[in-house]
Specification:
88 residues; mainly alpha; 77% helix
């Protein structure tokens, strides 16, 4: 049970970092500053898809770029994994 709590805490932190990263990149885009590489944002979305998806929607950032549709694929994969872990 303790391992599950540690995993959950790490996932929450990663999702918070992903959310903040999408907001921070949007801020930098509006202010013509050095941007976060897209590969970094995609990698954050792979590990923290809930935060990335929320950041995309709330900050209206990267929503038109086709490769960022992967965020929603990652989100579904995480939901399937969570469901599997709960059933097991």
């Amino acid at each position: 049970m303790q391992n599950a709590m540690i995993i959950l805490a790490v996932l929450v932190i990663i999702n918070i970092v992903a959310f903040i990263s999408y907001g921070w990149d949007k801020y930098k885009a509006k202010n013509d500053k050095w941007r976060t590489p897209e590969a970094t944002l995609i990698a954050l979305a792979f590990f923290g898809p809930f935060g990335a998806a929320a950041g995309m929607q709330i900050f209206k950032h990267k929503t038109r770029k086709p490769k960022f549709k992967l965020v929603y694929v990652f989100l579904v994969l995480h939901l399937i994994l969570i469901a599997y872990m709960l059933i097991r």
